[in-house]
Amino acid sequence: MAAVLKHWREAATLILVTSTNLTKRGTRLNLTSTSVSKPKMDELNNTNKTMLITEQELFMDNFEVLMLKRSGKSKFMPNVYVFPGGVAVDCDFSSQWLPVFNKLGSDVCQKLFCSISVGSPKAAPMFTRQRDSAFSSLPSEVAFRICAIRETFEESGVLLAQPAQKSLNQIHSQSRSLSPALLHEDANVITQWRERVNKDPNEFLKMCLELDLVPEVWSLYEWSNWLTPTMDTNNNRRFDTAFYICCVDHKPAAAVDSGETVNAVWASPSSLLCAHFKQKGVMAPPQVYELSRLVNLKSASDILILVSEPNRERVERWMPIAAVCQDAKMSIMPGDDLYPQEPVLESQELLTFKQTLAQLSQDYPNQHRIIYGSQSLLQGDLKIKVSIPAKKGHILPDEDVLDKFKMNAQL
């Protein structure tokens, strides 16, 4: 199989971004009566108006991201808000995608694939590892983008695909422009295809062939790569997940599938973080970490400028390693002085330190760690400590900003 390894499965996730004050353009994908374009549930509504004003004054993040709440019946991270995404399947790597992309022209297709996979020797292992010949026709960078687009369509109904001619125009247009989501003239057609894709991921390729659509892989930028820790007490399922980010030119309506997902919200990183720290919108550490990065940017345009920076470095794989010291529980991240030089990816043991947290900070000043104030990783009481430099074209969390969110949540 293309994306199944002995100890984990490979997956892709999409952080979908739109400007907060952007007018809704064109026909929105109103697939079902449960479509939403902004938070409606109390879980993500702050009733303290004073706190809301304070947040807006301090953290002017003028953009929103799409978050989905996983079903309580989900086998992995139930009842948790996540970015849309899921495991890769064989069809994402199929050679049958080549005719789809060749509709752009063979030269354009070749240049597109090369631009997406530039810097491959320095890429994360999920992009560089050898696959069976049956799954090697597409660069892994393309296949995982297809996976992210397909899973986003399955879980939210948002489809990042365009007819071939429009795709060609978009590719030739100026870079750093917001990307369109599909505005199909007949929403029922998309609804029916979504149902088919939910039942069988192979139908996504068939849909693109029949509707003359090309997945907008060029609009997705690498953002991060997370490997589930070996000592995750919540679940023994592990995933090596590529996180992508895409900025769209309007706010497409999102509709849950009532299976894996039960709620869909467009919300700013600041409001999502405040909801998490008030324990009204629980998120796993990777989501909190990524939102803590995004909250330092002011707009979707700022995000595009960052991720499209020339010579931007490829993402590295982050596998948090569980650790305890005298007075705290932590996840140690790559770049931290405490991170092992050669971590055991398959069965890394718990790291134990006799020092206090303050002593560790003094003895090991290069920090990249998540510190937990409770036993559960899903509780709101966590702190991110970062004192290492960011890679070119990337941004790391600002721990002072995160502390202010925690303080606001206590008001």
List the helices and strands and how they pair.
Elements: E1 9-19, H1 49-58, E2 63-70, E3 81-82, E4 85-87, H2 97-102, H3 106-116, H4 125-128, H5 140-156, E5 161-163, H6 164-172, H7 187-199, H8 203-210, E6 213-215, E7 221-227, E8 239-247, E9 261-267, H9 269-277, H10 285-294, H11 300-307, E10 317-318, E11 321-324, E12 329-332, E13 351-352, H12 357-363, E14 368-372, E15 382-386, H13 399-409
Parallel strand pairs: 1-8, 7-10, 11-13
Antiparallel strand pairs: 1-2, 1-4, 2-3, 2-9, 5-6, 7-8, 11-12, 12-14, 14-15
Family: Belongs to the Nudix hydrolase family.
Protein name: Nucleoside diphosphate-linked moiety X motif 19
Keywords: Hydrolase, Magnesium, Manganese, Metal-binding
Characterize the structure shown:
This protein is of the alpha+beta class and 411 residues long. The protein has 2 domains: 9-307, Alpha-Beta Complex (Nucleoside Triphosphate Pyrophosphohydrolase), CATH 3.90.79.10; 317-390, no CATH class. Helix content is 30%, strand content 18%. It has 13 helices and 15 strands. The chain has helices spanning 49-58, 97-102, 106-116, 125-128, 140-156, 164-172, 187-199, 203-210, 269-277, 285-294, 300-307, 357-363, 399-409; strands at residues 9-19, 63-70, 81-82, 85-87, 161-163, 213-215, 221-227, 239-247, 261-267, 317-318, 321-324, 329-332, 351-352, 368-372, 382-386. Strands 1, 2, 3, 4, 7, 8, 9 and 10 form an 8-stranded mixed sheet that branches. Strands 13-11-12-14-15 form a 5-stranded mixed sheet. Strands 5-6 form a two-stranded antiparallel ribbon. A hairpin with a 4-residue loop joins strand 11 and strand 12 (329-332). Helix 5 packs across helix 7 (187-199), helix 9 (269-277) crosses helix 10 (285-294) and helix 9 (269-277) packs across helix 13. It is globular and about 60 Å long. The protein starts with 8 loop residues before the first strand and ends with a helix. The model is unreliable at 23-53 (pLDDT under 50). Keywords: Hydrolase, Magnesium, Manganese, Metal-binding. Belongs to the Nudix hydrolase family. Its cofactor is Mg(2+); Mn(2+).
